[in-house]
Give the backbone structure.
Amino acid sequence: MRKVIIWVVVVLFIGLIGYRVTVSIGKFTKKTVAKTEDTGVPVEVVKVRTGDIADRLNLTGNVMANETVNVYAKVPGKLQKYLVSEGDNVAVDQVVAMVNRDEPGFDYAESPVKTNIAGIVSKRYPDIGALVSPAAGGAVAMATPVITVVNIDKVKVVVDVVEKDVAKVSKDLSAQVKVDAYPKRTFTGTVTSVSPMIDQMSRTAKIEITVDNTERLLRPGMFANVDILVSYHSGRILVPVKCIIEKPDGTKRVMVIKSNIAEDRAVTVGFTDNNNAEILSGLKYGEYAVSTGQQRLTNGIKAAIISGGEKE
């Protein structure tokens, strides 16, 4: 009997404590809600400003030689010797190899193999003593090249542009090129070719950017990051991209704080970059746009600016 009484007392004591805690939490919650309703939803804002913004395409591609030419022997025969090595510079009409016709009953002088462009020897093909044949009548498929010469005083960076952006790109646009081998260097190029065709599989068009490479730092086969400046706008209304709320229907809105009251504004967005968005309509210079906390706001609700603006 005594144990039962003790258990009843314990249960009543625990229940009393629970009741007091519940009441305390309730009072605290009510005070917090009341305080929020009194001061407003806390938000961070930024002042709508004017500035410059560019429309850029960020692409990736490959570095290619400006010219690549296979050099063939003029006569059939055995490759007698090479006069150049891979990586050597060669001039136009320079002799790079000798071929011996080696036909029984005939005594031929060695025939020189000459280059037809200036550049760098990128590859030697046959071994010494191998048979070589000329590209007679343009029959290149049946011939064996002796060497390949590339001209890399200028290089081409080839990139693919998606269909929706093709209309933005035209010849003579400026481009910035970066490669992993030189992370601190930026190479400037110019769009020199825009393919008139869209690949049906990838839905992209090929773009060629010519880059001066007199230092010969860029090499064919390198992977390149390309930034093409498409258009530039100055003196435009700008807000950080994080201020913009995109609705399921595709419309874009920004919450503005005016006299501590939230206003839900529809906006028209122009260019965007990594940080900012150009606002074509819906905002004015000097207004305060919400950058943090907009998800808790609705039109007409009271707000409290905790950072980024003048508390009204």
